[in-house]
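User: Okay, second chain of the day. Same drill as before: sequence in, structure tokens out.
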Amino acid sequence: MAMALTCKTPSHTVQIPSFDTQGHRGARGLMPENTIPAMIRALDLGVTTLEMDVVISKDKQVVVSHDPYFSSEISTRPDGNIFTAAEQLKYNLYAMDYAEIRTWDVGLKPVARFPQQQKMPIFKPLLSELIDSAENHARVSKRSLPFYNIETKSDTRAENGGYQPDPETFTDLLMAVVNQKGITQRTIIQSFDERTLQVMHRKYPQVTTAYLIEGTEKNTIEQNIAKLGFTPSIYSPEHTLVTAEMVKYCRDHKIRLIPWTVNTKARIEELKAMGVDGIISDYPNLF
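Assistant: Same drill. Structure tokens below.
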């Protein structure tokens, strides 16, 4: 039976529902990923939590983006030209002020993996404006205010002076927005990067953390948590890694288990029957 998770701040106690439905990058299968329209669609489909990724711009703005550069799969240059995967790393977001980032389009280019995705001219938003839009839409449409699952796309190449600031600077910039917008008690910070989560655990212990695990991971859950150095609120593996033993371990240790990215109705139902505590999906309409 799925667990509910209580998130606490000095003046709030908020409970994530016992089964957490999360729209991956908003609703990536249906709308351009990590954009405000994707988040609005996910809310209209009834998700509990908006899942997204963030990076930092040159002028230290928190930008909603999966990659720390403009991906050739989804992006169009300001002059209207497309570019190749071999070129994309030179379009480093950490080398651009947000005003420049906003001139690139990330919603018009067809994405072969997502044929249902609606195309539209759209830009990468600031985290602050995405939160404002989601909160306002939820209130106007008389829906419950959403939770936010925010992944730090901190890049290990930062030490080489390339992509993204150090984990502590990254985390402080992110949490400044979260705190200023008053959503701390409804925020999950997730990462594959143990360093980010370790900063969160040390400096912002009141915030829910989720440890992301790749499908190629060979370590056991016990080994991964030992590597992290503390017990996270949520363990979030690629869905192919979920086993009955993992479900039992999480239940025994009061860790929520929320796998990603589950894109068929049959697999969603299979994982629910196994006892996971939530699902992250590109297609929130499947919930």
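The longest strand covers residues 49-56.

User: Thanks, on to the next one.
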